[in-house]
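Before any further analysis, we paired sequence with C-alpha cells, yielding the entry below:
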Amino acid sequence: MDPHVDPQQADDSTPAETIDPPRRMTRQQTLTLISMASVNFSSMICYSILGPFFPNEAEKKGASQTVIGLIFGCYAVCNLIGSLVFGKYIVQIGAKFMLVTGLFVSSGCTILFGLLDRVPAGSAFITLCFVVRSIDALGFAAAMTSSFALTAKIFPNNVATVLGSLEIFTGLGLIMGPPVGGWFYQSFGYEVPFMVLGCFLLIMVPFNIYVLPSIDADPSKDSFFWLLTRVKIVLICYVIFTLSAGLGFIDATLSLYAIETFGLSTGYVGLIMLGLSLPYCLASPLIGCVTDKYPATRGWFIVIGGTATAVGFFLLGPIPILHIPNQLWLLVVMLGVIGFSLGMTAIPTFPEIITCAYDHGFEEGLSTLGMVSGLFGAVWSMGMFYGPVVGGLITQHLSFKWAAAIQGGLALLAAFCLAVYFLCQRPQPQSVREDRNRETDERTPLLNE
C-alpha cells in the first residue's frame, strides 16, 4: 500500500482512478482551514477597530488630518517591507514559525496601542503611535504572508474557493471591528477595545501552534524582479494597489466626514461601515467558487469589479461636478457597491498571479507561493499607504468628495488598462500542466508533519 495514500481512501472499496469528485478534506486540512480562518478574523478585527473612533481621538491629542493619515500609512509602509522580506525568506524562516510569531507580536502591539491615551498630547503621543503601529505591521505581514502561502500550498487546485471562503472571516473581522470598537469606546473608553481584542488575538497563538502543520521546502532561485517582468502581473498589481488605496482612504477619512456632514456618533459610524464589509463578506466565497470552476473568467471579474469600484467612489461623496446633495442613504449604498465589487476584484487576483508565475517557468512550491504572497502583501501595503496619506492630504486641502473621486479614477484606469491587455491577447489553449499537477497532487502528501 502506498504510504502516502489517505487512510480514508484506503478504506474505500472504490478504485482511486474511478473517483471523479474531489476528495474529502483530511482532518489536518480541516484544522488548517480553521487556523487560517482564525488568523484572518483576528487580524482584521484588530485592524478595523481603529476606523470609528481613533481619528477623532487623535485629533484631541493634537494630530492633524495629515498626521492621522500618516499614522495609518506607516502601518502600510512597514507591512510592505515586511511582506517582501518574509515572502522571500519564508522557506528559511519556516511558515509555521512566521505565522505564530506574527500573531504574538500583533497581539502585544494591540494591547500597547490601547495604553496610548495615557501618553501626553502632542509629539509624544504621535511618536508612540508610529512606533507601535510599525511593529504591529511587521507582525501582521509575517502572519498574512505565511497564511496565504500555506493556503495555496495545501489547497493548490482550489485556491480561489478557499481564499473566498476564508474572506468570510476577513469580512466578519471588518464587520465586527467598527461597531464593536465604537460600542466599547462609547461604553468603556479608549483602552477597553484594544485590551479585549489584543487578548483575543493572544489566545489564537497556542491554538495555531497546535493546529498548524510544518511544511518543508527548498529555497527557490527565482526573485520578485522576474515576477514583475510580466505585463499581466504588473497590471494585476496595479489593480490590487487601487483596491487597497481605496480601503485605506475610507478607513482614514470616512468617520470624520460622516460625523461632520451627518452629525453621527462613533457608534453609528461603525454601523454604516457594515455597508462596506458585509457585501464583501457575502460575495467572496461565491466569486471564489465561480472563478475556480471557470478560471478563464478571472480576468473579466477583475475588470468588471474595478469598474464598479470606480462608480462606487464617484458617487460616495458624491463627485462635486454631478451636483448631487449629501445623502446618508447614498453613502451607505455606495459603500455596499464598493464592498461587493472588492470581492469581485480581489479574490481572483492571487490565483491569477500564481497561475501566471507557473506558466512562465517558476518552480511550483512553497518558495514561489511565498514570493507571490509577499508581492501581493507589498502591493496591498503600497495602496494602504497611498490611500490614507494622499487621501488625507486631498481631503484636508480640497474635500472628501474630490478625494473619493480621485480614488474612483485610479480604479477606473486600472480596469481599463487590464481590459485593453486582455483584448489584445490572443486566446491560448488550456495548459495540460494543470491536469498533470492535479493528478500528481492527488498521489502525494499535501502536508509534511
The chain has 18 helices and no strands. The chain has one domain: 27-210+222-433. Residues 1-22, 429-449 have pLDDT under 50 and may be disordered.
